[in-house]
Each structure stands twice: as structure tokens, then as C-alpha cells.
Recover the amino acids of this structure.
């Protein structure tokens, strides 16, 4: 067909080449204009196509365009052998290497994935138990509000959000309770973005993000600064929960409450560390989410108790995940074919990957963006499998009080 179009006329061939170049230049100019016109909005997330050119490349980015490729390469190096041979990243050497390099690992991870998370998920980077008849957004708000209620957060409370991301939960909790909330994240890019959103919502006097390492909280805050603290799927990144939880204990007033949702594997409902398929899923979740290694619920409780807390309550908030009254927490990763839910479907992720590939080819997106997209697509499948088999939950709830 191409030969029929061109024929033997070299002029036709030249016109085709010129036309192709013009089309590519035109696409480049259009997408460059979109990139320059990108504006953050605290009331909504990235647009599906209109803001795609700004993934990993916008005025708030802390990685230079050349830094993305090096960052993803360094991150992948900490999980050398992942997805090639089951058990490779579960060795003591591999885990200890990630624990030693956790600050670099987690910071690099969020430099790379924050935009993708917000693009596909919104400003609250977490899962939630979901009742039938409840929208995804409603389930997210309910999970956050539940923590606020269990932590007895009041308008007069000073609250610490440990591992706050771009601050979606802290803004929702602040607006729900009226409390003063400080969020700490190791990632400066998230601080830059989150504080813009707080200002846009007019709550920056009661809600702010600061850069800091939750393994070193006593260096950041005076003892007894906060009335309550919470974490949402954040301290799973910790290389040593005893150090992390002890730091949170230091920050709380005597009797202060600490609540959270933690990522854990579930031996109580079937996880078997000797089952290669279970280990494969576990390792896939770890490599795709910047985790040293997944713990069990008993590991979390033990760390809390050894860090000066009395555990008042704990349970898997997804214990009824396959009840006929609930929508599985992982269902959102399967997505729905609606305008809003499409990007969360497998096909939607494939489309996003295609968009990112095109943007990288046109040199709009930085080199390495495609590898980040592929990493997240692969781990979505692991999360769904872990949820279906009930060997993993992202929502192990705990309520603890400082002794």
C-alpha cells in the first residue's frame, strides 16, 4: 500500500518524509504547550490526557529531565533479580541492602511515582474497604474519617501525619475535624506539591507538610508535641518499625493515640512463605512499592508494644473483602469502564503506558518514564492477585496508646 502511495516518484517519497516530520513537530509543539500550561489544582487530580505531558516533568519536579533515567536504574538495582527468579529479593542480603539504603530507595521511589499515583488515584495514596453502593472516593474519605474518630481528634488537637504523601488525607482530616495537622514526608517533591494544595484550599494555617525522615522524628519534633498521630500505608516503608514507632511515641503527649493502616501479608488467612506463588506475589508488591520487606500483623503489634505503646485494638479492615456486602479493596485496580474509572482499568493502564511511551519518544517526557509506568503496571497485577487470594491486605488497622 505504501508503494502504491509513493510509486517510483522520489518527490512523493520526499513529501511523505516531510509530512511525517511536520506531524511529529506539530505533536511536539502541542504537547510542549500543554506542559507549559499545566497548573496544579487542589480540588482535582491530573486530567486524563491534558495533563499527561506533565508527568515527571513540571515546574515542581525535583528531578532534572536527565535524573529520571538514573533514578529508576538505581531503584531497580535495589531489587536486582526481581520478577526473574522467585526468592531472589527475599534473601537476607537483598533485604538488608534495601534496609540500609531505605532513605534513598523510598525518596527515589516517590520522586518517580508521585505523579503517576496522583494521575491514577487522586491525592490520597491509599486503599480502603469499600461497601456496596459506595463510590471509590467515599470509601477513601470514610477510611480517613474512621482514623480521626478512633484517634479522638478534635478541633483543638495537634496531629502528626506520618508519611503524608502529597497530603490528601491530612487535608480531608483537617477539614473533617478542624484540627491542626502537620505531615512529614521524606520526599521534597511531595512537600512542594502538597503545600500548594493546602494553600489553594485556604487551610495552610492549619495544615502543612515538612520534609523529614520518619526514622528520625526526635530530630524533627520536640517530645510531647502532638496529641495524636496516624499513618496510612506509610510505615511499611520503614526498615525498622521499632525505631519508627519509638520516634512517634517520642512526639506524642502521655496517653496520646496512634492509629494506622499497615500493609501486611496474612499467614492467618493462608499466606505461606514456603509457597513459591505466594512469595512471587509478595516480592512483586515489594518491588513495585518501594518496600524493604512485608511484615505480618503480629510483627506490627510486637513493634508497637516494644516501642512504648499499649495496643488497644487491631484487625484487618478488609476481613470481609469477599462478602456480598463489600466491593473488594483491589477492585479499583481492575477499574470500571466509566469516564472517571477508565484509567484504573487494565486497558486504561495500557493506554497510559502508550501515552507515556509516545511522550518519551517525542522527548516531552524524560527518559526512564516508560520504565516507571511498566513498574507500576506490573505491581498492580500483584496487588490484585494478593487480594483475591487473601494473602495480603493494605489495611491492617491498629489503635495504640502511649504508655
Amino acid at each position: 500500500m505504501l508503494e502504491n502511495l509513493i510509486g517510483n516518484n522520489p518527490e512523493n517519497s520526499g513529501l511523505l518524509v516531510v509530512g511525517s516530520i511536520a506531524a511529529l513537530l506539530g505533536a511536539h509543539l502541542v504537547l510542549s504547550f500543554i506542559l507549559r500550561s499545566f497548573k496544579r489544582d487542589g480540588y482535582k487530580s491530573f486530567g486524563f490526557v491534558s495533563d499527561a505531558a506533565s508527568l515527571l516533568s513540571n515546574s515542581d519536579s525535583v528531578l532534572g529531565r536527565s535524573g529520571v533515567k538514573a533514578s529508576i536504574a538505581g531503584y531497580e538495582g535495589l531489587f536486582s533479580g526481581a520478577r526473574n527468579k522467585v526468592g531472589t529479593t527475599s534473601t537476607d542480603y537483598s533485604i538488608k541492602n534495601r534496609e540500609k539504603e531505605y532513605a534513598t530507595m523510598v525518596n527515589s521511589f516517590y520522586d518517580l511515582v508521585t505523579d503517576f499515583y496522583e494521575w491514577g488515584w487522586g491525592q490520597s495514596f491509599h486503599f480502603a474497604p469499600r461497601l456496596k453502593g459506595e463510590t471509590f472516593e467515599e470509601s477513601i474519605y470514610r477510611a480517613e474519617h474512621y482514623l480521626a474518630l478512633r484517634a479522638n481528634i478534635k478541633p483543638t488537637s495537634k496531629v502528626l501525619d506520618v508519611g503524608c504523601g502529597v497530603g490528601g488525607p491530612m487535608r480531608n482530616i483537617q477539614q473533617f475535624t478542624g484540627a491542626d495537622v502537620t505531615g512529614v514526608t521524606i520526599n521534597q517533591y511531595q512537600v512542594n506539591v502538597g503545600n500548594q494544595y493546602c494553600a489553594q484550599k485556604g487551610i495552610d494555617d492549619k495544615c502543612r507538610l515538612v520534609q523529614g525522615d520518619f526514622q528520625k522524628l526526635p530530630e524533627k519534633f520536640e517530645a510531647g508535641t502532638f496529641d495524636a498521630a496516624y499513618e496510612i500505608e506509610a510505615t511499611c516503608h520503614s526498615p525498622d518499625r521499632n525505631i519508627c514507632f519509638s520516634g512517634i511515641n517520642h512526639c506524642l503527649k502521655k496517653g496520646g493515640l496512634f492509629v494506622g493502616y499497615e500493609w501486611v501479608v496474612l499467614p492467618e488467612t493462608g499466606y505461606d512463605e514456603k509457597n513459591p506463588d505466594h512469595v512471587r506475589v509478595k516480592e512483586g508488591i515489594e518491588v513495585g512499592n518501594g518496600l524493604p520487606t512485608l511484615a505480618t500483623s503480629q510483627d506490627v503489634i510486637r513493634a508497637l508494644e516494644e516501642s512504648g505503646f499499649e495496643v488497644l485494638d487491631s484487625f484487618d479492615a478488609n476481613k470481609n473483602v469477599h462478602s456480598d456486602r463489600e466491593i473488594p479493596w483491589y477492585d479499583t485496580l481492575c477499574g470500571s469502564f466509566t469516564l472517571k474509572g477508565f484509567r484504573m482499568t487494565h486497558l486504561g493502564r495500557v493506554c497510559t503506558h502508550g501515552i507515556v511511551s509516545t511522550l518519551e519518544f517525542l522527548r516531552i517526557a524524560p527518559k526512564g518514564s516508560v520504565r516507571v509506568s511498566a513498574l507500576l503496571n506490573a505491581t498492580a497485577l500483584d496487588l490484585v492477585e494478593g487480594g483475591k487470594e487473601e494473602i495480603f491486605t493494605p489495611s491492617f488497622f491498629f489503635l495504640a496508646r502511649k504508655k
Notes: The radius of gyration is 23 Å. The longest strand covers residues 252-265. The CA atoms of residues 183 and 209 lie 5 Å apart. The beta strands are 130-131, 158-162, 180-185, 207-211, 226-232, 252-265, 295-296, 309-316, 326-327, 392-402.
